[in-house]
Amino acid sequence: MDGIWVQVLVALIAGACGAGVMLAVVCARRVRTAPAAARPAAPPGLSPSPLPDKWLQEVQRCEQAVYRAARAVDAVSSTQARHQLQTVVRRMDAELPNIRALSEVGRGLAGTEPRDDGVVRRVQSQLDDAATRFSMVTDHVLETVVELVAAPDLSRVHEQVAVLREQFPLLRPMSAVFGPKPGSAPARALVRAA
């Protein structure tokens, strides 16, 4: 019986030591996280916007369209069809930096004083149009994948990819946004050399 009491005593001491270590770790974490919680979340001059960023929403719509198209194309079992459809997805992905840049321009124009509301509206319209075009191309890619699963026909996939390629570029030229209003004369003209 003497051996059992020694084992119980050792177990109690080990348990107390383990509890002490855990208590020390918890206290140390509280001390480390308390100053971080006391710091302000944002600089005093800037407050987080409660409204969603309309510029970011359009970019996210385009990114989501590319993501959906890429996931659908990755599921295609035919290597040749997958490669053909991936060219469309890569082309969509290649236009995303331009979408992001246009969004930043719009955000910058909307936040300045005095602001040109006509240009801001054209930038917003351009982004909305691009997001709609991205969604339409994604829907077309998804339909092509569904048709390919239902009836594998590589020639039809090739035709669909050709139709999709004709849709590019999805983002209209920047001159449509920042150029002169339709029907207005240019502010300056080049003078012909004599």
- Multimeric state of these chains? single chain
Helix proportion of residues, in percent?
Answer: over 70%
- Provide the low-confidence segments as ranges: 34-51, 185-194
Large-scale geometry: flat
Overall mean pLDDT: 76
Q: State the helix count.
A: 6
What's the total number of strands?
0
Radius of gyration, CA atoms, in whole angstroms = 30 Å
Q: Summarize the main sheet.
A: none
**Distance separating the two termini:** 120 Å
Order of helices and strands: HHHHHH
Strand content: under 5%
Structural description of this entry:
By secondary structure, the chain is an all-alpha fold. Helices cover 72% and strands 0% of the residues. It contains 6 helices and no strands. The protein has helices at 2-38, 54-74, 79-110, 117-150, 154-165, 175-178. The termini are far apart. 20% of the residues are buried.
Core attributes:
194 residues, mainly alpha, 6 helices, 0% strand
Architecture blueprint of SSEs:
Elements: H1 2-38, H2 54-74, H3 79-110, H4 117-150, H5 154-165, H6 175-178
Helix pairs in contact: 2-3, 2-4, 3-4, 3-5, 4-5
Short description:
The chain is mainly alpha-helical and 194 residues long. Helix content is 72%, strand content 0%.
